[in-house]
């Protein structure tokens, strides 16, 4: 009895960790992607599934979370980061096959409620008292970029919260709990529930998004196919449609 | 036996991992770091307040639960245990939709009194109470159901009114159940992460409790995160051991 329970436990453990390898399942791929990439990568994954019947599983989170998961031994095939610093950390940990390639750029924008009821027109407006401003934590790429933009504009903001991923900033604004938040242009574009207030170029920050194949990829062919699609004209046009700038 | 040992190992191994990887030379610096003290103080304040609120609201709820029967009981019980099965992040979103600035209750509160609950320490306490109170209610309800009703009947027969029966007979008999429920509730509140981050946000000194501080530190300075976790562990153990003697006396 005990042996049978243990065997069952081991079976559940193996199947839940394995993913691929159980029978003739279609090729599958695990992509670790920055939270801001979700709308674009969902479309790219669908494209890949319909063309090559390749099934893509995503792990979306703040880039800093993905980085610590990977350096702690999480199993994945592709890593797409929202900044080069965290990609470098993963490269230095010896986890990357080849060299990372920048596949997209993004800029910052101020997200406000539809119709901009609080009349927010610039970074300086974010310092107004009585305004609930939410930023990403400085450990999150979007939070680091936001800090840089605010510093360039010489504005000091007292945030109500420092969120752990940029999509959480967007959620707080779209639910009406925050008056404004600094997010990516692509977030505003795909959300549909907030309006964007542009940040002028002199204060804005350009985010570079690098992609790379992970050394312990289970299916490196599939991983290369995914990376190639992201860098291809098709992938690039999907990214641009979702508010990114092409590489 | 073997299964019990396996069960125990499941608890012990992660703890051993933490202790093995702990940068002991940094414990001192981390202990005196202001961020640690701030997060620890906030965590203790929020979790103890949440437990107090849960005691005030949860004991009456348990009383009602223990005295209802049939379908109503099933419904009430399901509602009470809902936060235990709901993913805490979803609980946090639900709290936003209820108490947020544009939420069901939050919207009139905001318009009439200019009150805003999210991103405040109050929000962190509400989130912890929401997630942790079921543990207290279930424990107290269990205690009430296994209570020998003859003591209460005797007290009533001797002329005590219902409040006096509750305060002088029921409550003292319930003490072990209330104690264990409160401890479970407090422990759950102390470790709360998902509902807090979603409903209350993350700001040092206001809503950044230890679990949130650990999560942030894990990415920027993993050693600090391990030390913070150990501090939380040590503080909770100390409080649990201290409370046990004081509340229960000699077993």
Question: Mind explaining what this structure looks like?
Answer:
The complex is a heterodimer of chains A (247) and B (251). Chain A is an alpha/beta fold and 247 residues long. Chain A folds into two domains: 26-105 and 208-246, D-Maltodextrin-Binding Protein, domain 2; 107-206, D-Maltodextrin-Binding Protein, domain 2. Chain A has nine helices and ten strands. The longest helix of chain A has 17 residues, at 2-18. Chain A starts with a helix and ends with a strand. With 251 residues, chain B is mostly helical. Chain B has one domain (35-248): MetI-like fold (Orthogonal Bundle). Chain B has twelve helices and no strands. Chain B has helices at 2-21, 24-32, 34-67, 70-85, 88-99, 106-113, 121-145, 149-157, 162-190, 194-199, 210-220, 222-248. Chain B is globular, with a radius of gyration of 21 Å. At the A-B interface, helix 1, helix 3 and strand 6 of A face helix 1 and helix 11 of B.
